[in-house]
Amino acid sequence: xxxxxxxxxxxxxxxxxxxxAGQTAQTLPRKAPLLMGxxxxxxxxGACNREHKPQPCWRPIQKLKPQLFMWLxxxxxxxxxxxxxxxxxxxxxxSNLDYKKMREQVPIIGTWDDHDYGENNAGAEYPMKKQxxxxxxxxxxxxxxxxxxxxxxxxxxxxxxxxxxxAKIILFDLRYNRSLKSDPDRxxxxxxxxxxxxxxxxxxxADFHLLSSSTxxxxxxxxxxxxxxxxxxxxxxxxxLLDRYNPPGTLFLAGDKHFGCFSSRPAGKNSKRxxxxxxxxxxxxxxxxxxxxxxxxxxxxxxxxxxxxGHIRFDWKRQQIICDIRNRLGKVALRRIYEKxxxxxxxxxxxx
Length: 352
Ligand SMILES: [Fe+2]
Description:
This protein is α/β, with parallel strands linked by helices.
C-alpha cells in the first residue's frame, strides 16, 4: 500500500521519514521502520565486495550504529548470465556471519554496478537484466510489487527527516539503460530515469541531497575508468538539471574505483563547485604497484588505497556533513567537513 501525499504531510509531525516520488515507508526494505522518527544523522556506505573474501568492515560498521547502510555497487562479483550461479553468490554473501549480524540491526539500501548487474562494464545489452534485477532487489530486501521492481532499472530515492532537517538520497542505476559503446550519444540513465530524476529534483524540499551512483561523477578520469564524464551528454544533462533546480546541500557519493577518494570540481554553466566522496573496496583495493600511482594522481591527502568504507554524519545545527573514509578497523583514514552556504545552498569544504 502506498501512502498518499496528504498522509505523508500529516505524518510529518510524528514520522520523520517520507518520500513523495520515491520509496514510501511501506515500501522500504526490511528493518526500515528503524529509520522512522529522528532525522538522518548517520549512514555508512561501501562498494566492491567479493563474496568469498574476508569482509572486515561489517563489525566496525555495526559498532558505529548507523541508521542505514548503502551499497554503491559490486555487492558480489557475479559476472555471469547463469542466474542460479548469481543467486548462490548472493546466498554466500548473506551467509557471511558479520554481514548477517549487521543486516539484522541496520537497514540496507543500495544500487548495483557492473559485477552484480552481471557482466564487467555491461549496460542495456546485458540479456539477463530483468532476472538479475529481481535477484538484486531480493538481496536488499526490497518488498515485492513495488514501483521499483516494475521500473526500467533499480533507481530510487529515500527522504528522511522533518522540514528543516530533511535529507534526500537519490540512488541512480547506471547499468540497466546505459547505451552501447558504439553509440556516439552514449547515455547513462535512459529517458525514463532522466524524467524520474528531474521530478525528484523538482519536487524536493530537502535540505541536503546525496546523489549516489556506482561510478564517479567528479573524480579525475583515467583511460579505463567508467566515470560520468566519459558520457559527455549525460554529464552535461546532469549539471543542467542541477543548475535548473539548484538542490541545496548536494554531495555526490560513489564507489567503483577500488580506493577511497574526495574530489571536487566546478561544473555546470555557472561553474559551481561540487564535492564527491568515493568509497570503494570493502574486500579488495587497487594492487600494490598501483597504490603510489593513485596517491600521486588523486592526491595523497585525498585518497586512501586500503580496504575502506564511508561514514557520513549530519550536524543539523551547523548545517554540516562530516564525511569519513574509514579503514578496515573503523578508524578514520580521511575526513572532510562540508558546510552548506545558507544563501546559495552550495557546500563549502571547511575542514579535514
Ligand atoms: Fe568493483
